[in-house]
Design a protein that fits this description.
The chain is α/β, with parallel strands linked by helices. Helices cover 40% and strands 16% of the residues. The chain has an eight-stranded parallel β-barrel, surrounded by five helices. Bound molecules: 1,3-dihydroxyacetonephosphate (13P). The site of 1,3-dihydroxyacetonephosphate (13P) has 14 residues, from strand 8.
């Protein structure tokens, strides 16, 4: 019922040439990753050339961030311009944005709204730090980030929103959440969606996991009932490992 998503977040990596070489590797491998939605979030500079290179393929493009307005905001990028460059989705609230650039829940909520208003899809990232997990605050933090991020969003718009659970302690550390830990958090998120909206919204919303996903651990994660895909950082930078992840469940 929920089509799995494998998304690659390249963060601040890859020149235009490197992005194009990746696309050339990815395109022929796609037929072997059937029934999976493949999304790439390259740096902004590679978006429009990738859109052209991946035209006629099923790969979708996402922005890694946006600013919730248009006009005199030097150095920012809007949902409208991301759509113009070929994006169908935007990653919002990544922990690197929250931690390194001081983004608040309220600001992230403005971005969620701006992306939805532009007709694009949102990948809303949430997740606890190691200290918060140690302090048994995980569910409290997830609920707070969901409440703020989704404030004013109606159930109908949720058809265009994906939640990405990315425990901060698992990002770029090689320390993946165990399948059990991830499933527990995903279950909590789905239960929250059922209470906040309704059961049908909870049942149809994709909740994907991010944090040191590799070809080795993807199968265990995808076997969990509430894990609907992955948001992959480091392992999405090499086409071979990203393709292996996109072909999860197969040898
Ligand atoms: P890593 O896969 O490198 O841990 O990064 C995860 C991530 O932040 C994806 O958005």
């Amino acid at each position: 019922m929920r089509t799995p998503i494998i998304a690659g977040n390249w963060k601040l990596n890859k020149t235009i040439d490197e992005a194009l070489a990746f696309a050339q590797d990815l395109k022929p491998a796609l037929s072997k990753a059937a029934n999976v939605e493949i999304i790439l979030a390259p740096p902004f500079t590679a978006l429009s050339v990738l859109a052209e290179a991946l035209n006629n393929s099923s790969v979708l493009l996402a922005g890694q961030n946006c600013y919730p307005a248009q006009g005199a905001f030097t150095g920012e990028i809007s949902p409208r311009l991301l759509r113009d460059a070929g994006c169908v989705a935007v990653i919002v609230g990544h922990s690197e944005r929250r931690q390194l650039f001081g983004e608040t829940g309220e600001f992230i909520n403005r971005k969620v709204k701006a992306v939805l208003e532009e007709g694009l899809r949102v990948i809303l990232c949430i997740g606890e730090t190691l200290q918060e997990r140690k302090d048994n605050q995980t569910f409290k933090i997830l609920e707070e980030q969901l409440r703020k991020g989704l404030a004013g969003i109606d159930g109908t718009s949720m058809a265009r929103l994906v939640v990405a659970y990315e425990p901060v302690w698992a990002i770029g550390t090689g320390q993946t959440a165990s399948s059990g830990q991830a499933q527990e958090a995903h279950r909590f998120i789905r239960d929250f969606l059922a209470t906040h909206f309704e059961q049908a919204v909870a049942d149809s919303t994709r909740i994907i996991y991010g944090g040191s996903v590799t070809p080795e651990n993807i199968d265990g994660l995808m076997a969990q009932p509430d894990i609907d895909g992955a948001l992959v950082g480091g392992a999405s930078l090499q086409s071979a490992s990203f393709i292996q992840i996109a072909r999860f469940g197969r040898v």
